[in-house]
Amino acid sequence: MYKLKILLVTVLVVIYSSLGLAGCGGEQKESGGDGQAVNAEHEATRGTGKESAVNLLAKGQQIEGMSCDYVITAGDMTMEGKMWVQGEKVKHETKAEGQNIIMIFDGSAFYTYTPAENMAIKYTNEDMQGDSGEVESPLDYTEDVNEELITELETENYEGVKCRVLLIKAKDSQDEVKMWVREDYGLPVRVEATDTDGNIYVSEFKNIKVGALPANTFELPADVQVQDISEIMG
């Protein structure tokens, strides 16, 4: 299951990144084409009281902290758990082979903690070779979205919450990401990522609670035995 976790995360990150969602510096955005359509949509929303898709997602970046349950599905494989996020700190709790596994990134190091064994393994970014094994949180999907790639499809209730459905797709690619974004928080509650082969990877975020989290949320119990992976690997 832990290997599945890293596999699913890697696939989602690759698809999300391949769409060029990040509006980074460098090349200037070309006018016309899809960009004109989106800009026209933004102009149309002015004076109507309707938030633009970009401003909707920007609300998610204002959230100080949050927690939720998650379910990730890829084909016939499913993984579920809970997560807590605040700033750069992230905590996940899931099960592997019948045991609870807690994964924590405290802003500087990554820990895999097994409560039943009262033991944790410590990793750094160098140890993980850039892959921390973290599941994408709802906040990750709201960062630096390229407005020219967004098409708004509809507004609908998803599990009792009013959401706006956004499709993010590059013009010259079959990869796409479809998101159901809550109107109140600006956070996605469902993300469907489709790759060029037609494979669909679904992330669902349930029971979302927003607000600052206690400081000890991202701390290991004081009596946990911590082993450094670099020492284990010699």
Automatic annotation (TrEMBL):
Signal peptide boundaries: 1-22
Keyword Lipoprotein part of the UniProt annotation: yes
SUPFAM superfamilies, per database record: Prokaryotic lipoproteins and lipoprotein localization factors
Region (Disordered): 29-51
Keywords tagged on the record: Lipoprotein, Signal
Gene3D superfamilies: Lipoprotein localisation LolA/LolB/LppX
The protein's name: Outer membrane lipoprotein-sorting protein
Species of the source: Desulfoscipio gibsoniae DSM 7213
